[in-house]
Amino acid sequence: MLTLLLAPFRVLINFTFGALATAIIGLLVIVVGLPKLILPIPVVQRGLSTVANALFRVWGYAMSMMFRLTQPMHWHIQGDAQLHRDRWYMILCNHRSWVDILVLMHLASRNMPMPRFFLKQQLFWVPIIGLGCWTLDMPFMKRYSREQIARKPHLQGRDIATTQKKCAKFRHIPTTVINFCEGTRFTPEKHRRKQSSFTHLLPPKAGGTAFTLQTMGNQFDAILDITIVYPSDKRPAVWLLLSGQLRDIYVNVETIPMQPELIGDYFNDERFKAHFQHWLNQRWEHKDKVIGELTSRANSQPRQ
């Protein structure tokens, strides 16, 4: 019956469901996390993190429900599917919309460890979400400009040290670390401004990916190259989802075995830096072709 409702009612239902699920589960995660402030005992903190992670998976299931709450959703997932919840992965993903996060949550809730994101420090102050992410040990990144470092040299490398400390906590709970290598959502305007050599992608930023591998590379079981495509439409994917008009999502998953040559000091080893940039650009050239193929496939399907 919900699929027969007019778009404004679908938006209201989906938005209310998503907001309530986030608020309720987020508050439960925070309640679990509060003892971490007063009980800095490693075994206790790991136990609380495990409970918080289970609640995070419940939120993943809730977000997955949004894809079929007010519309018949068709998932077109191709590629490797032999993934396990008790392992460690790093995801390289293109970034088209905020819906990408919900897509990755849907995939994770099925057969992957729950993902972790590198977040801007400002997000810590977002009600519920900020404290919830802190409880889940997600790293909050504080970037220092060259001017700040010039004035205060002791800030040099502090963001890297903070991230290493946070990532160390991932060793105790199977985790999927997500990297949107473009650094921002793709738009035609950004594509033109950056003079991208790719048809469907912005140029990848190699530093964050290389640093993640330097910090946790020996722990990752594999790299997951995930490509997401929505059928061509001038309206934002988030609006199509909320209004019940997002009927198809195309996902390609490729598993890349971990290789020792992908782990190195990107910021101090020029030879490794050139090698890693070349490797990532090759992955991006391949991903660009995959997006073209999936887009052609998506646009050739009859619209419902």
From TrEMBL:
Keywords: Acyltransferase, Membrane, Transferase, Transmembrane, Transmembrane helix. InterPro entries: Plipid/glycerol_acylTrfase. GO terms for cellular component: plasma membrane. The keyword Transmembrane helix applies. It comes from the Bacteria. GO terms for molecular function: acyltransferase activity. The chain crosses the membrane at residues 12-35. The keyword Acyltransferase applies. Residues 89-231 form the Phospholipid/glycerol acyltransferase domain. This is Acyltransferase. It comes from Pseudidiomarina atlantica. The lineage of its organism: Bacteria, Pseudomonadati, Pseudomonadota, Gammaproteobacteria, Alteromonadales.
